[in-house]
Structures
1.
Amino acid sequence: MPETAVAATFTQKLEASRAAARVLATVTTEQKNRALHAIGAAILRNADRILPANELDLANARENGMSDGMQDRLRLDYRRLEALEAAVVQVASLDDPTGVVVSGTTLANGLRISQVRVPFGVVGAIYEARPNVTIDIAALALKSGNAVVLRGGSAAENTNRVLVDLLQGALIEVGLPFEAVQTIDEFGRDGARDLMQARGFIDVLIPRGSAELINTVVSGSTVPVIETGAGVVHIYLDESADEKTAVDIVHNSKVQRPSVCNALETLLVHQSVAATLLPPVIRKLRESGVTIHGDARTQALVPDVVPATEEDWSTEYMSLDLAVRVVDDLDDAIEHIHRYSTHHTESIITNDLARAERFLAEVDSAVVMVNASTRFTDGGEFGFGAEVGISTQKLHARGPMGLPELTSTKWVVRGAGHVRG
Amino acid sequence: MPETAVAATFTQKLEASRAAARVLATVTTEQKNRALHAIGAAILRNADRILPANELDLANARENGMSDGMQDRLRLDYRRLEALEAAVVQVASLDDPTGVVVSGTTLANGLRISQVRVPFGVVGAIYEARPNVTIDIAALALKSGNAVVLRGGSAAENTNRVLVDLLQGALIEVGLPFEAVQTIDEFGRDGARDLMQARGFIDVLIPRGSAELINTVVSGSTVPVIETGAGVVHIYLDESADEKTAVDIVHNSKVQRPSVCNALETLLVHQSVAATLLPPVIRKLRESGVTIHGDARTQALVPDVVPATEEDWSTEYMSLDLAVRVVDDLDDAIEHIHRYSTHHTESIITNDLARAERFLAEVDSAVVMVNASTRFTDGGEFGFGAEVGISTQKLHARGPMGLPELTSTKWVVRGAGHVRG
């Protein structure tokens, strides 16, 4: 890699990112796609550099007592590299979100105005020790015309160093500025803090990882942040819910992939159907090894329930655990959700039209559902073709984010000597 | 007013705002319009309460040595109340942005998804001693289904107290929760600071006022902020610019209303036409009393130019002052803009198609123009019918904001027992 990158100060690096962003903003879709294909090829070609670096990170992780789950997220092998390559090639196949005219008109005075999608400029990403995020975010940023400044978890630093090196090599290969992808890992914790304060250099910051990481970034940033993540997700079984629908949707929502943010965490059940619905719903969950944390009314109906504490209602287990509460009615369910939800996804299982509509209207979450598994809250499932993350904030983007959510707009005004009267 | 409002703590007030927001989110457009008409009527009916309170604020302001300009912004008279009433009635006539389906489809598996505009919830507003903002923001928030928490400048506290009182009275009159509009002025500086940190209570914070106020809010907030405002606005006179077009557009951009953010602050001129264009352009400006701050090349071409310092290039004068610089070419102009602009509005005056397109593509500002006055960057001029502000950030909204920019979206998913495979 160019030696300047090695010796650059933090500010020099960010200035280089800004300059690279100006170039990226006007290159063609074809050129960006060529870069993505070059990145894909470089991933497979450099397996013999990536995997030993990853082994080194894993050895350090074991020495530092990293949990098996976290080691699994850190680990790369050849199959995972193939999956990463496929993901990058898939991003190349997506529509370029930039240059799209979002709206436009000719004003009464003849002035023609149009609102056009443009890249943000420089996207910052702060994430944990998951090296696949390095490739994912770089590919998504590139396709949307953004430069990206990466700050990965220190436990993945050897892997990320190689990955950024090959990303930059691929950019150079196709004639794009290598500074379009940069890491600030070498600046350690100070670098992360400075990145959060880098107004004028970083246009938007995307934290990816634990609730703790996201909170740190949100509270420490003066740069605008897109908050993704935490899902204390609810399903409400209405008094009119079908037993089979309830059993299947609750099971799918909890068990299909318990470690992700759209997995079910709290089940609410109308009191009049709790006695008939809870036993079959919980039986099926237990067949898959789910532990039930229930309120007093749940404990009275089902054996071997762990008594739920106040804490359970706001816990994102991300494991085979489920909080269960019997509620008085729809109002009570909505109140519970209002109080404890992280406003990610909530679903009602019902056959009653009026209650379905009330739930959809009154529950204030990024995604509200009727008779569907909460696992459908996903950019891929929604047909976006890319997994940028799921926004739980209300500004800019809410819910699953596709490539257009990695862009801003600008207004283009064309006159013929127009002055304002 | 209800006594509870008087005794409420800061947190109680914000909790009441959240509850009011939940009500507002589901009331009909008709009901919101009734509230707006009631507010309009209350403004005129209560002139005998508003104007004396305003007199008191003005007397205090004079005693504290407030500048004439700021006193003028603070002052209300009957004609200004009529204008305020008219503005509120105008907001009632605008389309309700909520409930609009922004996008939607039926997925291959039969799941129907739609993205629907919904209110943010609770909007916070921090502004300076301009009591008209109290009415403006409350009306815009209400129409878009948002509750609003107001923190006005302390110099307007007597006026604002009466205004909030009549806003709440109008809400009660039409059967809406009065807590949909609240002030936290009684909590002083601590209140402003707490508002900026009120995550979970305030969904978005809008600062309105000086660059200093906006910077304070942006750096001090953990709540998402929509940044409006500062405009170091440029016009570039290309070598192919028409003299008359250049003279008229520069004059209009600088002189028509110099105190606002879309007024011209820096004029750049191509070196090959500086000698022919600058004299007539500056002559016309001087007829309107404009002071020219020029670089060395400008000074060589025009008499009586104040030498520009480095500081002039980044100054938003908001007065009859203009910085002028002769540049080598379009690249030099774009570099100057990149370095000094606040990315609000920039315009090129040219007859050359290729250079027009390059300027529009490469200048990274909220609004980029060709052959038009920068004064057109305005929600009213763009046909939005409302003046929410002009965003200079890239997240969520960029450029003039209309009512839709005061909303978020939510995804509504309708299934028939769908589970993910």
2.
Amino acid sequence: MPIIVQKFGGTSVADIEHIHNVAQKVKNEVDLGNQVVVIVSAMAGVTNQLIDWANAAVSDHDDREYDVIVSTGEQVTSGLLALCLQNINVDARSWMSWQIPFQTDNNHSKARITDIGTTAIRNSLNSGVVAVIPGFQGVSSENRITTLGRGGSDTTAVALAAALAAQRCDIYTDVNGVYTTDPRIVSGAQKIEKITYEEMLEMASQGAKVLQTRSVALAMRYNVRLQVRSSFEDAPGTLVLNEDEIVEKETITGIAYSLEEAKITLRGVKDRPGVAGRIFGSLADASINVDMIVQNVSENGETTDLTFTVGKIDLSTAVEVLGELKDEIEFANVTTNPNVSKISVVGVGMRSQPGVAKTMFTTLADKGINIQVISTSEIKVSVLIASDYTELAVRALHSIFELDNPSQLES
Amino acid sequence: MPIIVQKFGGTSVADIEHIHNVAQKVKNEVDLGNQVVVIVSAMAGVTNQLIDWANAAVSDHDDREYDVIVSTGEQVTSGLLALCLQNINVDARSWMSWQIPFQTDNNHSKARITDIGTTAIRNSLNSGVVAVIPGFQGVSSENRITTLGRGGSDTTAVALAAALAAQRCDIYTDVNGVYTTDPRIVSGAQKIEKITYEEMLEMASQGAKVLQTRSVALAMRYNVRLQVRSSFEDAPGTLVLNEDEIVEKETITGIAYSLEEAKITLRGVKDRPGVAGRIFGSLADASINVDMIVQNVSENGETTDLTFTVGKIDLSTAVEVLGELKDEIEFANVTTNPNVSKISVVGVGMRSQPGVAKTMFTTLADKGINIQVISTSEIKVSVLIASDYTELAVRALHSIFELDNPSQLES
């Protein structure tokens, strides 16, 4: 019998009424003849209450005890969903991490999965019982409760789907799929039926916050077919798949944007070996992620300008770090600009279709939009522009790459 | 190093501020050179919230999932207390039931303890780490979370004290000890310094609701020295001990009363063998506890009257059960009286001091109080009287048996 893994996030299990609704969605998969494994998040407000208590107890907490406290939120939902399933005559039971066991390393509060026991759950599934599993947590080699950190429940779901060789892993959320771009900006944005892992990674990390990057990367590695779909309607969502499962590939799959980055320029940097390594090494040591990097050709052979982007929340720390390096690496000054937007055109089809970058740059130029930084990969082209032009750029690119919904265009 | 087990109930861990206070009490025992094991209940309102959710999910729940849900309350407190202890430089960690392991049978929501692993906790204690353990729960032979039912945290504490051969098990609560009688009725009631297990059982089951009967019985069986003391003051409480540890025994230790029973009288019962067995068997089948029983001598050799008491909450069910038996066992009628009070004089000393019953009956008669039913054991005499006379009877007996605080008498 095929195994389907379903994951329901916080908005899907907000309260008891929502959990009853989730039970019905589980029953639908059971009625289709599937074995079902369900991953649940904590109910609305529960995790925040637990975190508030932990913070009220101490300012600087022991992650091991913090994990003991915050992991209870999902544990409660797993018991409640098992009860709601039994209530509609679906045989179900909850499985704690230590019962599975769902093994992780000892890196509390941001643990990584090391091994998942499947025998007990398989036996239970084979006897017709739905498995309900609290997301976001595991058990360490020291037999203590760990949590997986941000987006952990998506990762739990994908990892279990991989371990159980599930036919599909459905991520239920409050949107009904992944769109060609943000529908709040472009009313003609269309739901994407199928998208590759690589594209999804670009879309997600560029600001289309539907799936956590970590869970998409894991799905790609283990070839888990993901589906992003809505808890609140019955239509199919967006399938995230391997490229070879998508027969007809569009050149461009979507347009992503991110307002969460800031630009830093170091002017008059002494142009000698090791300088870039020293700068970006120091930023990395301060846990600051650097995204786009441009280094101008040294004009006089002595100094150069270095431009890069960091997360807006890291901007002040980054400036501090650079200040501490000033004497050592020698540069004229640092300028920063938080009013920037990164616009990305994403699509695996661009590998075989040259000219995407040219079309992108021309379109933006036609609208009078200046490009500050460019970065590219095999399947995307990203540019940094002034944030005031975000909507204009996204709409123009969505249109030029023919992503607008035809029915919207007619009307 | 001596091991001290401390148990803190719901009022003692009501909120984070209270948990900080508990941490200080734990530190005090550590500073005295003890190894400390702490059992905690859930914070105020937490268990009720969990129960409300479970009841909102389904009307008739699976006890296994119910246990998964409600056990999280104590789990949260255990993590929080460990954090608060670390905050005042006391090395501490939480221990979940399955980590200990704290084994029970599979009787979910009212499980009984079968075995307690001590190696891991002992090693941790020996390395100077306080063990914080969620009360009221265990893990079944099927590796699922169980709960011990009402008063379960006291039982957890006593069982661990027995398993670890602890020097003492301190039950912290909102009263500072066991009193010779209810201080709300007799202002001169005195805190008892030492009381035997047997007396405590009689006092507790008679209405002095300080310790759960089950935990006292367990302490008696394994000879665990118990102390009932206050979370909110520093004075010593009441020690519950083996009789041979109490050098000077008072004849009478205390006066207990209970307003929670009701009287049932069956008149004109056909006096033939097997009738009493049939009646009390049927009540037991309906889970109704019968306490005092009096059968009058059959006057004409044909019929008799049978009087007994049941819990007030069971009265209507008991009458139903008896109604169903009417044709079979033949009796004239059933009368009930919920307006009764059971008054008990308790003390191990009465074994060697005859005349306690006589003093009790004479004292009540002098006050014009009619005795409806009498029952006795080796260490107590109980009578059933009209509930209006409760305070009068308790005061008179407390005085005649010289339990009043001398300083109160002088003033």
3.
Amino acid sequence: MGSNLDITFTRIVDVPKELIWRCWTEPELLLPWFCPKPWKAIACEIDLRPGGIFSSTMQSPEGVTMPTGTGCILEVIPNQRFTWTSALLPGYRPSLTLEKCGTDDAGFMFTATIALEDHVVDTGIGTKYTATVKHADEAGCAKHAAMGFEAGWGAALDQMVAMIKKGI
Amino acid sequence: MGSNLDITFTRIVDVPKELIWRCWTEPELLLPWFCPKPWKAIACEIDLRPGGIFSSTMQSPEGVTMPTGTGCILEVIPNQRFTWTSALLPGYRPSLTLEKCGTDDAGFMFTATIALEDHVVDTGIGTKYTATVKHADEAGCAKHAAMGFEAGWGAALDQMVAMIKKGI
């Protein structure tokens, strides 16, 4: 399956992958960076095992909360690989009800993987950070791309790296 | 989540769980029993790992082939627990395209788990066999039940047990 169904971006960052892993998998470390400002993440639930919950709630600058959906964790390889999907709820239950099917929500089914690898940088050992998001079809992928997926996840990553450098 | 979203059935059978496991996970052992006669399974692909493929093709008594869909394996605990879902394709890609969304296909998204436990029977150690199928909503669950899920899977299990007793 190919490029028209996936969005992927890779960045080299000068913080260790073990700290990035913690920022993705510990709710209290995820909240501060997960939403590009001026949005913010105000709630997060993570049950770090295949079949466990991954969910977050965002708040707009105007104070409107927006649940970003409840996903199911699929892969947990500490410090290396974290995958979850919006196509399943915790316990692997399919998420898309007939009621929602055919609405805009259906377009955003995706499976996201964060892959982390050691990478030598000027200051020592940094991380090659690869985020990949898979979709069922080109329409869903294009919709996700048009929402500014890459810019959004890139801005969030910048916030995470800044937070790690301040010390966590 | 509860009873109106799931179909489950439990049977005590007098064959060991290790052989049932093989019948569910080795294509050449799955083909002979997987479809209640006079239908038959004519093809099957299994890549036995989380993220791997689980797919089969059935043939009607009239010789019409019907792919029953390509699913993604989620849990592989040898001799104990096997889970796959139709909501994802191999590699965890969401399966439901916008094109299919809202059609009958969308009603059959499910996640199936086969759970096996030792159970003492007259002839020694048999198996407590539990099949559970989870749906996103009551409508999908009711539709699956109305298709004769339990009778179908029960008849298939009978075929599997008869095959094991003949020797595999």
4.
Amino acid sequence: MSSYLHPDRLFSSDSSQRAIARTIYQAIKDLPIVSPHGHTDPSWFANNQNFSNAAELLIVPDHYVFRMLYSQGIGLSTLGVGQGTLNLEQSHQVWKVFADNYYLFRGTPSRMWLDYVFAEVFNISQPLSGATADTYFDTINQQLATDAFKPRALFERFNIETLATTEQPLDKLKHHKTIQQSDWQGRVITTFRPDNLTDPEHPKFRDSFKALASAVDMEISHFQDYLKAIKKRREYFVEHGATATDHSHPTAFTADLSSSQKESLFQKIRSFAFSPEDAELFRGQMMTEMAAMSIEDGLTMQLHHGCFRNHNAPVYHEFGADKGADLPVAIEFVKALQPLLSKYGNHPELNIILFTLDETTYSREIAPLAGHYPAVKAGPSWWFHDSPEGMIRFKEQIIETAGFYNTVGFNDDTRAFLSIPARHDVARRIDSRCLARLVAEHRMSEEEAVDVATDLTYHLVNKAYKFKP
Amino acid sequence: MSSYLHPDRLFSSDSSQRAIARTIYQAIKDLPIVSPHGHTDPSWFANNQNFSNAAELLIVPDHYVFRMLYSQGIGLSTLGVGQGTLNLEQSHQVWKVFADNYYLFRGTPSRMWLDYVFAEVFNISQPLSGATADTYFDTINQQLATDAFKPRALFERFNIETLATTEQPLDKLKHHKTIQQSDWQGRVITTFRPDNLTDPEHPKFRDSFKALASAVDMEISHFQDYLKAIKKRREYFVEHGATATDHSHPTAFTADLSSSQKESLFQKIRSFAFSPEDAELFRGQMMTEMAAMSIEDGLTMQLHHGCFRNHNAPVYHEFGADKGADLPVAIEFVKALQPLLSKYGNHPELNIILFTLDETTYSREIAPLAGHYPAVKAGPSWWFHDSPEGMIRFKEQIIETAGFYNTVGFNDDTRAFLSIPARHDVARRIDSRCLARLVAEHRMSEEEAVDVATDLTYHLVNKAYKFKP
Amino acid sequence: MSSYLHPDRLFSSDSSQRAIARTIYQAIKDLPIVSPHGHTDPSWFANNQNFSNAAELLIVPDHYVFRMLYSQGIGLSTLGVGQGTLNLEQSHQVWKVFADNYYLFRGTPSRMWLDYVFAEVFNISQPLSGATADTYFDTINQQLATDAFKPRALFERFNIETLATTEQPLDKLKHHKTIQQSDWQGRVITTFRPDNLTDPEHPKFRDSFKALASAVDMEISHFQDYLKAIKKRREYFVEHGATATDHSHPTAFTADLSSSQKESLFQKIRSFAFSPEDAELFRGQMMTEMAAMSIEDGLTMQLHHGCFRNHNAPVYHEFGADKGADLPVAIEFVKALQPLLSKYGNHPELNIILFTLDETTYSREIAPLAGHYPAVKAGPSWWFHDSPEGMIRFKEQIIETAGFYNTVGFNDDTRAFLSIPARHDVARRIDSRCLARLVAEHRMSEEEAVDVATDLTYHLVNKAYKFKP
């Protein structure tokens, strides 16, 4: 254990709660990592090449990190964003700016994850600052060049049992194929993310729509053709390990139209001459169709709705998507999901996992829905809320109504591969902390708490995503 | 005290807070129970018959309990719901399923209430599980058959001083009459709940509307007739003990129309040819009329708005209402109540108690409204939020703006008679806990805290509902 | 230290957290007070006259205080509100009613601030109650009559370094001029609050619009004239010390219209024949214009949107504005601010501080906006939420996403001059408490916590409002 990570971090400072938290944590800390949803690059595990350097691995691609520096007036170019491959000197400069401003991350989960990566993954024993920036840069780069830091070696060192990536529905999944055909045993699977076929206002909808026909080698003239083509793509993903789909629309709206309404809507969409209302209706109907397909092929549905993408127009035009300017908006689930749930929500084999960026829906909508419908589960705290306080709020606002067994454990949802063990460690610590409070307040026995913690860390994730342990 | 209920449960584990909580709790734990709002069946107290068995009493009628089992894929029929009277073997089977799955309730208030019922009401000393299911079933059934477990005996054992039930406005109140005319001294009163006359979209509106005229023996051609008829029904309820009305509309909207607007709206409603907008306007106007009548007859108004009823269409069609599929939606009070409050909100004798399923309104709307208008009070945390964490959030988000004296103590709001002492005990413990924190942090003296706890448990309830202690 | 204010008040009762909180508080408790936003009366410091008496100073003008008494049925007239200058006997009566009902404030921040004023400013050693009312009244009045209690003497005793008042844009700022021209060194500056020129539905818009032309001595026929005239008023305010503007609209809506759209909208507004939609569009466009001017003249923008003013019609008609009937409504920032932020949000010199009465926006909107846009900062918890629990929620819901360095320290926002040190003391205690928790849970070092506390108390305020320390 490195000197600057305290073994009791994130546990309550109340001595009776802390002692219980240690016991619970001890029981779960070494369980395998199951990562059912995230955005790592499958080529890493297919090609197993070394990562380049500290800045290009940890700063430039991580919008959690550079958005904070940007918010304080440091230009994205200065941080290497959108500058193509950096040479070592440029990377060193980016690292220096980051280290000088590391105090900005005080109190944030990014700080906690990064400290874990430095201390646990790279075994560095002094905190990062302007003064230690150079040592850090060299130490990290040296280790990254070794065989022990190749992606597959790290995957094994991190004790990852299952890792899901996320791909768009026309992806040929060649990296997953390579991994499947290799002699490496690591389980890296894909997830079906069809927003560019379900959302007519998706920037890539028009191209994807046109490409679908040739991808599945059939003509698409009617709505039933469209559904059949998408089913084929789902089958292809299932062959490459997918056990889940993932959906992200602006709202949670669903619809249940008649056959003729569907056909007439589809013809409008197909002509690309549709109104915003048509687009919303189509998204809503497609969610219901996705649920129908999930009942057939068994794929778990993940709903990540309610994000205003690319809010900052100049940043989007200069630097593109995923630059820290995706922002939460208020969302409504109860009315929106009624058509879908009244049709399919009572199906005991269907899993629909609800995520939210609007924490007001935890106690008001998600917990009551998950606490009634067999098909609905509450996904873990997401994105901005995947933080110690965010996870505590999730527990306090979801569990009393939904129970623990209508939740699905933790998602790291990250593109930062090295942070995966850090994120799972924070989640396990917060689980231990929250359960310890219930035990110390005589709301649950310690034995039950260990049981629940194990379920949250391992069994509930496997069950919700239908992974075979 | 049973072995598995800890005497300090729900108090903070911080030793200084816990000691203070014990002192406060000691001062209030034996105060009489005042239950100003709930849904117990008055026939129990009129007829005083023994309850049948554990499953038929505790599982089949309690949607808090069966919804959780249903959410995990256990069929409602398997749980005895909608199956008519169960024989003992069927009841035993239901009980067994419940016991086997009792772990699903970990972390929920249902678990805490049920444990209290088992330990305190039935004096069982080991926790419920599959292994103890049979013993539980027999032990509970044996006791239920005794005189000591007849409704009136339990009412007295529970130390209930006042218990309000809730009836629709055309109810003849025969059970209340029987109780009034009996020599039993227990105070069981009714509450006037006129949604089927104020909401044109209520499933029973058409029938109730037609039945009202004959119930009050007058012709109803104009809006003033309608109001007069409703007034008569209120008088009838007052004669049977009512001190409050209760209202549940989809939104909190109120209106203040001119006489001619009211009349023309009424004629549309009366013809049953109205639009959704007409229905909303009528509901809004009726709330204002109810406030006017309350100023005359003194009935406290309870507003339980903002619930999406019967969300799950197949469950509603097969099993009917109140099957765990009533779900909260976001609600707005400030704009919605402005017409009513600008008209009547400054009246010092009017009591309007606001309940919410949308906790975001606690600090944003309810507390500021209660902290200004003489007529407005903040009702306790309701339904899904009537839980330890829910009550803590209520205190933390309401009191700083509204003060304790614009709240009205606790409501158990239950149809599960045996859980009443359990629910009041949880409320008293959480009151003690929250006040102990203020004392331990030197924000209030211990003497004041005991004073406030007593007011919350007893005096503020009696005052808000105009009960004579 | 007075006997009834505990030195550890508001710190956690957990002993490890409390010890750390003391250390942090020790480091910041004597730092100068910087008060960048508030509503004190500049004439106090210009004329330096003694205040009259306890009731006229502490009760009658403070809507925080009298609204609570009013909510419990005590008439505003009984509290001296709207009665003109009170004589000593009348003031005494008001004081007596307040003292008799002081228990109503239990658990509120008003109670905490008042106790501080009594104990620390007036050095009274026993709590206020009906029994001590007379002693309090006399003791306070005696002290108020002394030189030591003249406004400038108190300003110095309170260790105020900068105090900003708020004036409407046509104000001649004569009191600020008097202060500037005096030999007194106290820094009392103004703030530019142009709602009566940016909001066509503001009750004073019509008069202000007409008065603007003569105030700046120019003709205003076109939108560009209007902007030029407002710029002149901003220059005048800058000459009198202003470093910030302040804006309060019903919503956060912004717009970015073309020149011709602006001109045509302006002509409608100018004719006073505009629809509610026109008014909203004009407010939205004016916010964008204000941002453009701020980039030129450097004034920090404060947005205090989302309040329903004068909700209680009879109270407004009889007693006027600011009588405790301004109520929060739900607000949306992400969509609303997009036009303005995409235009100016990346400007590193622009400061836009977001305040909210809707706490749901903390984690959902404000923190993500502040954690991305260089121009956006999160203002401290405001009005109803400027309380111990409110500040704790702010910290827990803002910091993990925005970090501490996208916040701007504390605002007292008060018209109650004597409460300024009380309010800053509560803020410093809660900062110490929240940081102590992070330290005790090993999420931050104690050294870093002291650093952050100092930044929150002093440096971040000066930076956000461009004050020279």
